[in-house]
Design brief:
globular, 17 strands, disordered N terminus, single chain, 12% helix
Length: 324
Amino acid sequence: MKNSLAVLWGILALVGMLVSGCAKDSTGPGDDNAPSGVTNEQSARVYYATNDEFVQNDVVTFDDQEVAPTDYGTFGKIDAAITPLRWGRFVTRVIRTVTDTIQPGDTIAFVHVHKVIDGIFKIRGINGAGDTVLVEKTFTDNSDRNIIFKRVGRETRRFWLNWVPVATSLVDGGTIPPNNSIDITKVEMFLPNGDTITVTDPLNYYLRYRWMPMFHGGRKDLPQLDPSARIVVQATVVSASPDTDLVALRYGVGTFQKRRFRMQLISEVNNGNGTYTRVYQGPFFVHFHRGFFHAGVDAITRGTLFDDATPYSASWWGIPYRVF
């Protein structure tokens, strides 16, 4: 991940936007050699899109690789097949498909990154007989995001330097049909400066990379947060489950920085068509680890956790942010 970030820093340096603390990758675009496998401008955009720090760490945000406890609060147990104690998502395979589209005028390109994510959802809990059990459910999630590139040159010799990433959409992820019975429909992030990010269409809501001021696309700048800052996240979820879902807020990375905790239900409406609209809210305090991350909203149905026979069903969005 550090090498991919260094690659992007090298690109930005060429347009006079040198960021403090950046470094050159000796095999990257700061030299006279194209990155491995890059043969033209199109493959260069694909390379930088798949090595973008945000594209790489979105799966990391939602991949637990351990069975860990969550604060269930008043979630309760009512005629459940199992009482969950700890749970975790284990990603076993990620397949990426990248689509690159140049807009008319040959100055802006959209790169779409689609991921098929296979894994095992593990729950350690107590069954009806009082025995401790480990329940495993296989899952397949899809995730999508867009990255906007801007042309900054037309050099033929070092063609891989002609485009730079300037903005990213949010990450839209969730279970593939027919088990997609829960859906996040809106996420709001309330920032310390009084600004609010409100998203209802994650793939068409773009956050500008703040170090690229010549680009005026996107709706807001990427949140750049101070360590220890308090952020409030609110999520609206539509679910087919009559029982309260579990919505967790995730942020940070690493053994000591990665966090997952339950968001609290603050309102519920019966839509009258077999679905329910619920609003959840939770704060988090920004970690001290500097870099590029996602604040992930992870919604799963009650049956996913409490019933060993109910298929896994989840919806998750990722909001990119930077700690500096």
